[in-house]
Amino acid sequence: RPFRNLTLPLKTPGAQKWLMLSARPESSNNGTMLISFRGVATDVTAAKQAEAHISYLAHYDALTDLANRSLFNDMLAHALRRKARDERLCLLYLDIDHFKAVNDTLGHPVGDKLLQVVARRLEEVCRDCDVVGRLGGDEFAVLVSNNMAQDRLADLCDQISAALNLPIQVDGQQLLVGTSIGVAVFVEGECDADELMQRADLALYAAKEAGRNCWCPFQPGMVEAAQLRRQLELDLRAALGRGELVLHYQPLINCETEETVCYEALVRWHHPERGVMMPDSFITIAEDCGLIVQLGEWVLRKALHDAALWPEHIRVSVNLSPAQMGSPNLISTIISALSASGVVPERLELEITESVLLKKSEENKALLHQIRKIGVRISLDDFGTGYSSLNYLRSFPFDKIKIDRSFVNDIDSREDSRAIVRAVTDLARSLSMTTTAEGVERPEQLAQLIAEGCTEAQGFLFGRPQPLEAFPELRPLDQELLRLRPAGSITALPIILGKNSDPTIIESLRKQA
């Protein structure tokens, strides 16, 4: 019988080819015998190779040659369907610690090569596992369905961590990363493939919260915690509009005169159901869901609004998050807030942590210099707890160093703590920077700080963070209220900007206006 478009493989020396055949039968003259087929043979090798490549791309990650998310999910669902009743099936969900920092500092090509090395190491460690997949970005997953015992599963997680903790050489760069791993075990009747993946993801989040570079098994309470976190995120989005966020202030005193020279603004959330919530309970949520820039702007504007009614020698200190440093509107927000409040820039202190300088270091240093040109003071918070503090002091002229409370706690009883504080104050003095000691709670600590040359102090010894109403010395007189005139337009900027203000910034804002 005739046939059309029949595709068949053709084995040739050193290559695999494909032919597509179409033909019809040829009979003898009397029509009683089939003597041949007559038709066309077309070489379709290139088309078959392209088809195979498309199929590969649909199921495998082109960068690492591991199963992609689609294939991994299919294999996970298949494994659950064919699993015996008492068989254990485990899912490991992991990502690379600090991978974004590698991309940001060394570039995406280096990050891609790093992922390739990670993939090969995972394959080597997980040879007895069903499948290793890359789910996207720096996220990987491992499926184990061979009824692995609990202690063997723990050993596997430790082996993965050990393998990825080893230095990785990429283009002459030695990279030190690590991995956080979430572990979920399938329980018959409790979850399906999607639920198992969600449980492993929650366990991974817990591993990150525990400090990274570790593994964490799923616990039932993680689901409720995730639901609570989601509800808090929704509540936080509405909190600003409902006026639930308030500022408390904590005084900073001059060590020699014991007079208050500054107040640090600290945000509190008056949740309608959960009461007063501290920043530790919601700042991380704000960072994760993208609200931190909006929240930080509100804190800045509110703090300056309050400080406008204080005595003119009192400064206000506001914390600046790493996410705010990445906002393209930061400079204009600072100038706008100063203009609206009428506060001179020299009365505003912005506190940053070393983590700000870890990411996009050169860009952030340039941004800090722009802020300094406005006249705003810059403080380095939690000094001494990071990795490159001395290098930061050399690369940017901070106005103030805040000595972390961990060095202040035992300053009146331990010589090593006194030596560290003494070294920091001497260094700051030589660089024309002031120092503030955090966490001062006892008179003995203050006496020792004064002896070591510390400039300012902050802590419960001088007052806990409290609402503005708790500080009668900050309440303005009636004539002061009448004297204050909020700036009405951008033309007021030259008045409120300090003597060190950059004229180019003022001119740029005038043009925008």
Detailed description of the structure:
43% of the residues lie in helices and 24% in strands. The protein has helices at 45-59, 69-82, 99-106, 108-125, 150-165, 193-209, 221-242, 283-288, 292-307, 322-325, 330-341, 354-358, 361-374, 389-395, 405-408, 415-430, 443-451, 478-483, 493-496, 503-512; strands at 3-12, 15-27, 34-43, 90-96, 131-136, 139-144, 168-170, 173-175, 179-185, 215-217, 245-254, 260-271, 275-277, 315-319, 348-352, 377-383, 400-403, 434-437, 456-458, 466-467. The chain has an eight-stranded mixed β-barrel with strand order 11-12-14-15-16-17-18-19, surrounded by four helices. A hairpin with a 5-residue loop joins strand 11 (245-254) and strand 12 (260-271). The longest helix is centred in the middle third of the chain and has 22 residues, at 221-242. The chain starts with a strand and ends with a helix. Mean pLDDT is 86; it is low at 485-499.
Strand line-up across the major sheet: 11-12-14-15-16-17-18-19
Structural class: alpha/beta
* Average pLDDT, all residues: 86
Q: What gyration radius follows from the Cα positions, in whole Å?
A: 32 Å
What profile does the largest beta sheet have?
8 strands, mixed, barrel
How far apart are the termini? 83 Å
Number of helices: 20
Instruction: Tell the overall outline.
Output: elongated
Helix content, binned percent: 40-55%
What is the strand tally? 20
Question: Which regions are unreliable across 5 or more consecutive residues at pLDDT < 50?
Answer: 485-499
Strand content: 15-25%
